[in-house]
Amino acid sequence: QALQVAGAVAAMSATEQKQTTTPTVDTNNGTAKDYSAQAKAGDSYMLLARSAVTKHMKDNKLTLTGAQRIAAETTLGVAAGLPELEVGENVTITKTALQQAVDAAKGLSIEQQALWAPYAANVIFE
After folding, report:
1. 5-47 confidence digits (pLDDT tens)
2. What is the DSSP letter of 18?
3. Is 125 exposed, middle or buried (0-12, 13-18, 19+ CB in 10 A)?
4. Around Cβ 13, how many Cβ atoms within 10 Å?
5. Roughly how many angstroms between the first and final C-alpha of the chain, as a whole number?
6. What mean pLDDT is reported for the chain?
7. 43 in helix, strand or coil?
8. Is the pLDDT reported for residue 98 higher than 70?
9. Which residues of 60-94 are buried (b: 16+ CB within 10 A; e: fewer)?
10. Which residues are paired to 64 by β-bridges?
11. Alpha carbons 56 and 1: distance in angstroms, whole number
């Protein structure tokens, strides 16, 4: 029975990571800090993911290298399927997805960060 519960939890977290393109239900009655934004002209999912990572960093007083930030936003974008956005479309990235992406980025080795570094070289982070 414990294995069934563990399997259900693992399946839920994998499913939760893929649900970042649709607004999430706030199960914490207003206490969750999901990132939500409305797409404007010129926005992409990756730009909104970048803003979400930046806000998450500020809210949690975190410091990440440029390489780690690019890795985190890419993780979010790939998990969402890199959707194309329509102007006015609402995008919500869950607090859980943000935390998982940032945690994964913080866990990158020096060698892995070196691989991400060229993608961060000319990025102007907010």
Report:
1. 333 333 333 333 333 333 333 333 444 489 999 999 999 999 9
2. T
3. middle
4. 12
5. 47
6. 80
7. coil
8. yes
9. eeeebebbbbbbbbbbbbebbeeeebeeebebbbb
10. none
11. 36
